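Subject line: Sequence and fold of a protein, written as structure tokens
Enclosed: The protein record, placed directly beneath this head.
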Amino acid sequence: MRKRFFFAVLWLCTVPPSAVAGHYSVSVTTAPTVSLSPGTPPSPTCGNGACSVSVGGQNGNASISGSVSTTFTWEPDGELDLPPESVVIVENGTVTAFANAYPGSPSTAAANGLGHAATGGDTPILTWIPVPPPNGSYIQTGTASNRTSTGTYAWVRSGASSFTVTRNPSGSASSSNGPFGLSLGYSINVYVVAIGVGGAVWDEGRANALIGQRLTFSLSAGPVALSNHDWVADGSYFREIVYGASGTNPMGDPYAESRERAMPTPAQLAEPSIGLVWDEDFRDFPAYVEVSATATYNGQAIGTVTARRNLAIWVMHYAYQLSFGHTEYDQSRYTIWTTGSPTGNAGFYCEAWVRSGEKFDHQGLGWFSFAQLLTMDRTQWSGVGVPLHADCPPKSLDNCWPYATLGGTPSWWPADDTELSQGTKGDTTDCPEWELIMGTATFGVNDDLDMFLIYEPPSNGVGTEIVPLHVAGWNWSAEGSRNLSNVVTFSVNSIAQTSSVKTPSWSLQWTNVHFNN
């Protein structure tokens, strides 16, 4: 008997912090200059990203010049909250000027600083004169001048701990013989481009998830429309394993191949939201999600927005122990198997303990079990040399799902949120056997097996997948013969273990995939 003990405790992966939560505070740092003659001009009213002023008079002039500057400062909600990758800025500006002269030549000018051309112009002021009889007529008694520059400007820029946006609106109005007026209205809003996460446990501003928990991600960018998404996920994407009904193998075939779907379709990757599940060795794994998209405002493309979300992915604490027995032969069943302690008729015994961690205990315990994949090569030869070959596709699901205890049924055990030595123990055994058909003269066996410790995390309200935590690879081979008196002679060449403490990857597992459309 050989016995080995593995104990694995994988801690939270250390990832650089990312833009998770926070907001920008806003202050107007400079205001435009207002002049008025005759009279004393008012000061602009500025605050919360807006600035406005109105001025006017009689027989004089007014002007607005200089700049309005707005400073945005990042205010994190937690110490890990860094500024976003990009932001959307939406500005609204209006400058309006009017002047009437009776008579005279008034003048007006308007530019909102956002590039919108002024509309309006000079028009005559007509007055009805009832003479000469009998009809009368209109005559020009003055000139009216009106100019308006108004519009919205949306654009994309990179996020920063602090940045300032400066605009230079201007306007003027003058009349030597009549009223005049001038007004400015300006506002600016910044919208953080951010990835929203569904299904995470939030702690100190960071999104946390257990391995196997599905997370959903969506992109928001204020009032702009988004299209042409390009999602990128670092690490392995564990999408779905296809099995049959509980307690059976796929399609009822004991040697049916274990199948996986490891990637979303290109169409899914171009959608505004996506769901991902990680399965990876997280000891050196910085998990993150990135996305870029085309931003459109009022039907006009304004640029490409980007966002990044770093994640804290947790792997369970677990302990894993293996035991091997010895081989025997059952003459009555024409079978070969291994037997030995600690479970009697078992050549391979596996036990494990799993805990999910206190951070996630409000979600539930989660469950763990075992699954065995088999690569089988067995041949029987008749007395006249006819081979009767038995095999299966590599890494096929062995017998049942999940793997059952000896003489038992498939079982799942709770991942207790206690110390491993005090938690629930799950165990399973294997008694590799093979029934020799009548007429067999010689036979040979060479089987490679992988016993997985599998885990399904507690529900996070979004979705979960079953993921492998540990794999114990082992092999057994034998050869023998049977004479005409039905006496079997056989020898077992090896029962070898190639166990790995590394978090395993299932067949067809994708790694380091760049998701794009």
User: Anything to note?
Assistant: The CA atoms of residues 100 and 144 lie 4 Å apart.
